[in-house]
Amino acid sequence: MTSTPPEAAKGEPSTPVPEAAKGEPSTPVPEPPEILRFRKLFEEKKHSNIIWQEYSHLHDNSLSQHLTKPDYNRLRRALDSSRDWGIDGKILQSFEDMQKYRIAWDLKDYEEFVTIKFACGQHQDVIQLYSTHFERKGLTPWILNIMLAIYVKLDMVDDAKILLREALVKEVLPDLSIWEDFSKQYLTFSHEIVSVVRNMLVDAARQNTKAYNLYLTHLFFNERPDDALEYYQQNKAAGIQHDLSTYEILIDGFSKTYRPKSAFIMYQDVMAQGMQPTQKMYNMIINLKAGLLDAVGTEQTFRDMVRSGLVPDIYTYSTLLNLYFRNREVSRALAVFSEMQRDNAICINDVVCNIMINGLMMNHEPVAAQEFYKQMIHIGMQPDLITFNSLLKGFVYNKDMPAAINVIREMRAANIEPDVITVTILIDSLLSTTETKTAQSLFDAMQPYNLQPNVVMFGAMINGWVRLGNMTQAVQTFTMMRKHKVTPNVITYTSLIQGFVQSGQLAMATLTFRDMMQCDNVMPDRATFHFMIDGFLGHDRFEEAMVCFRRMRDMKLIPSKDTYFVLLTAVVTQERWKEGGEIMEQISEDGYEIRNLSLLRLYELSPWAKTPNLQTPFSSLHDATFTPIMYRLQRTAVAFRNITPVRPTAILRSRQPVRWASASHVAREGEKAAGEATHQFPVHEGLVYFDNMMPLRFSQFDVRQLLFQSTRNMLEKKAKSFAPKDAIPIEFEIAEVIPRLGIAFSRSRDGGAFLKFQYKALPTESKLIANEIASHISKNLRDRNVITTFNFQPVRAFLVRGEPFMEDLLARYPSQKLRIEFQGADLTIEQIYKEFRQFGRIFDVTQPNPASKELPRYAIVQYTRVRAATSARNCLHGITVNGTRLNITYERQIRTNAISQWIVSHPRISFPIIGFAAAGVTYAIFDPVRKFCITSKITQRFNPEEYAVYRWLRKETWARIVPSTARQAQLEEGEKDGTAAGGWSEREQDERMLRTWLKEQPETFILVTGPKGSGKSALVQSVIKDKRYKIIVNGEQLVNSGNNNDMIASLARQLGYFPVFTWLVSLSGLVDTLVSATTGQKAGISSSTETQVKQILETVAVAVHEVTISDESASTSTLALRRLKRLTSGKPRLKSDKNENGIEDENEIPVIVIDGFLAREKGPDHQELWENLAEWAALLVENRVAHVIFVTNHVGAIKVLGKALPDRTIEAITLSDASSDAAMRFVQRRLREVQLKRNLAGLDHAVAALGGRLTDLQLLVQKIRGGLDPDAALHDIVQRAIVEIRKYGFGDDIGPDAPGSKFRWTDVQFFQVMSALGRNEVASNPLKRGFYFHLYQSSHFPYNGL
């Protein structure tokens, strides 16, 4: 019976029929409960038979009319998944019911309907449906393949060719990949039909460029580059012209299949035909030549590209950068980078920067890499974890540990936390140095990195010691781990046990194992048991090894192949046949199979195989062994090859039940099966991807793969065990295991491995058989429940349908997002979902904007787990779906910061807030530090001279070794003291007065004045030298500073104010200017020099006050101690123990000396400085915090101080020159040693001529000590004074434009005054007495200036 679709019967369009057309009422009617129960069966995933029974019940009761199209779709999916007999008829009945209730069909429904008709042999119905429907509605590639197969099968080849030409006219391209899928499913044994239709499709592809390109893409997708090259050469010999799109596919295909020579031939053909290669062609050729490290060829291709008028893009430049860095041509790489910077069309991104940093580190240029990193920061580019890891790796391998520490600090400053790979690299580098010889030294070396001690850190340390074979330090590290209260895990214990076993310390391994068993939260895994078994067997303790083996079985742990290997080897070596039987039974229970025929033969001849209690003798298993083998021969029609003995080792493979057979029996059965085979089939290759073989790698320094490292051999054994031959009813061979490593093993990221297998099948059935092999491997993994130890997740297997892209790009690491680029038409969301859902749950699919012209067009697929994304990328990259090739890369997730965006968008609000916050942070962080530094300056906390222990040690050591130097120092100190006070009787009274004032509480200023050189500073220093707390401010240094910033720095240095940021004044002014320019109003954050000076002085005042308070609080305990000493000693109380003001020790009152007050007043800044100092001193004195002594030679100082402290009387001391006798005694005491050696005639005359000025007398002493006699020294001093007088009085040696060259007096006025001074005639203002009135012309101005 011919079934006609509803659209074909009624002539209606193929759109869904409205609900009213289905016979339903216009008003909503509650659905019958039977319908709801029927739909619930799908949610409960009931068997298809139960679902069909329920549907038959609905159909019999006329309730199926309430079903919708989604209900019918789910019904057909459930029936199709069961694959039972009679399913096709049930599916056709569901289509007929849809037609009956006028439910519209879509294109997928038509294709499924026609396919089932074809499978049921109803070819005439399909032809009739095509003539009535598809000629009007259109044709699809799938329907085209069905029609071609029907025409060829019915010997209507001409009709098939006509149909093919019509399809080309209608732009329905023949797709060989779709044909192969169709033929594998429905034409398995119709080889002649498959061959004829395929040749027709290939010939049709030559007539259409799109079809031609589609066929080439199909060949490369199926990894048939040789067929593609042969097809191209045949067409070229036939005179077919190829366009650039064809050559682009050829070059791209040969590049991805690692055929660079063929790609170069295609490129040469393009150039020979005078065609202009595209940008993509040039980039692919450049990439191929760069991969071969062919710098000359790469540069030539690059020049050809530039000559053709194409502009190199960032991909081209990045390829050149990698090439030159790999060739150790740093200068040329830098030249390429400079060219990239000059090119305005190139935007330097983080990938390029990471290439530069890694390349420089690779070429041992850490300084250049660090400078590049600084420039990267300077231009505002944010470094990522890859950047920091590249820097860290380079510095560590270049042994620059301070720079490595700085990198980690900058990582934390950028809110990027170091990962576990960083920890492992640091530990490995520290272990390689000569300093880290112990566990404690290694732990101490980790402290500068500010890393949190945890189980990962200690585990890496223990693993490092184990690799070095230093178990002593490994044990110490384990003890240190316990002291830090870090709980060890199974990996920690297993590492220790492995180390002990490898070093032959079986007793320590046993103790560690017992300690592990006593832990509540740690249980041994099969790796732990394996090392224990290996250790016992290595010491010939087979019984203990079997105890471990049985304990392992009791804990439901399945031994690995390596464990069984060492056990079976020991059984054979020691002839432990009884225990061998137990091991063989466990092998059978665990699903392993022994493939080594020599070992099996040995067991057949062993005494254990001949024991009467053996339940399954070898001889009875021979026939049963080949039952599945013959089934596979009948199923696949592949000849069974001879099995030859392999090397005598125990090779274990996972399978269902274990079966043994002798080598001769296997050989006989193999020859028999090979003789029965009637066809020889070509060999095909396929790839299966295992997705959880290793930990994922999210950065260059991810340490997890080092903790769970696996060698290539281990991966091969593990991957081969996942694909046992006897568990798969299809004959195949494992060709190779390819870890997902990129270019080098150290660059593994995706954590998986590829298993390449070979099988024999017809070309039309190759994909079908590959799918069956992959599905059986996946089922075997699920049945065995293979779980990894590093994440306790199952291992999954997927058939690789694309072309895996093996790369080692530094910036591309696994992520949940995949970027799917379309080389062809865009895929719909249904197509994307269908292809990618099998790998895991999809969070979202983002399709390209239809209006966007950005190329290439791409979609974003975001998974819920990273493992699903890695599997999809490795299995589907390069796949062709409906003529569109998919290129899949990882998409980095970009997270925007709403806070930073708001700050940038609202500068009027954010800038003042940031300024106030910065000020608050500065106050909270730096002010306590500054107070501490000032307190240390006042108390001399870090001055060793203040500590009696140091003075005693110096006296008992250095002073005894060099006594003359010590005595000379004491003599010089005594001379200085005498200079200050003891030597001059005029100074004794002033000194006593000053000491008396300092013993009292601070009430007012103390002013010490006098002419320059009168010994003011020396007097003050001699008085305060015994004071505990003192600060000296040198005004001369402040006013002699070059600018305001230097003046602030000098003041802070003298007061102990640290840290000080002198650049804040300029920066705050600049920020205020920028804010006012952008927002129109000032931010109010600018500061001046006066503000910073006041801030410094206020902080010093607070620190001095705290020192005073702390001393007052400590005075109570000090006083009690002194009273206790007096009582025990019986001495009477002295009046000096406590002064009138209640202070125990007057030396505890801080003293602040401002020397050189009003030293210079040449600008408003200096005037403000002196006023600020005076006000600050007034604050200290008024609050009785400290004594303040002003030392100055300025006669107007008392006026300035009076303004600051108007209600107090200033206590002043005015110093004058010494008398003649005192001056003579001073000079003689200083020249005592010189007078013993030579005669100093004329000394009295020289001293009398100079007078009592201290500086002049000291200069005289220096010149006499230098070798001059007194008269010559006097003459030299006089000549120098003459030069100074002429310089400052008459302007000699001063240019006319120099500052100070314009005096307020004339030369005559200055000469008359100097003459009067020489005659001692001018004692006061001469104008008051009419003295030289005509010279000054009634003006005080010249006289005051003098």
TrEMBL record:
Its annotated compartments are: Mitochondrion inner membrane
- Please name the PROSITE patterns in this protein's record: PPR (PS51375), RRM (PS50102)
A single GO cellular-component term from the record reads:
mitochondrial inner membrane
| The RRM domain, residue ranges | 796-893
Keywords, alphabetical: Membrane, Mitochondrion, Mitochondrion inner membrane, RNA-binding, Transit peptide, Transmembrane, Transmembrane helix
Q: Where is this region: Disordered?
A: 1-32, 969-989
Give the membrane topology.
Answer: Single-pass membrane protein
Q: Which InterPro entries match?
A: Mt_escape_2_C, Nucleotide-bd_a/b_plait_sf, P-loop_NTPase, PPR_rpt, RBD_domain_sf, RRM_dom, TPR-like_helical_dom_sf, Yme2_C
* Record's keyword annotation contains Membrane: yes
Extract one GO molecular function annotation from the record: RNA binding
Could you tell me which SUPFAM superfamilies the record lists for this protein? P-loop containing nucleoside triphosphate hydrolases (SSF52540), RNA-binding domain, RBD (SSF54928)
Q: Where are the PPR repeats?
A: 243-277, 313-347, 349-383, 384-418, 454-488, 489-524, 525-559
> Out of the domains of life, which is the source?
Eukaryota
The entry's family comment says:
Belongs to the YME2 family.
| Function according to Swiss-Prot or TrEMBL | Plays a role in maintaining the mitochondrial genome and in controlling the mtDNA escape. Involved in the regulation of mtDNA nucleotide structure and number. May have a dispensable role in early maturation of pre-rRNA.
Protein name per its UniProtKB record = Mitochondrial escape protein 2
Write down the species. Jimgerdemannia flammicorona
Organism lineage reads as: Eukaryota, Fungi, Fungi incertae sedis, Mucoromycota, Mucoromycotina
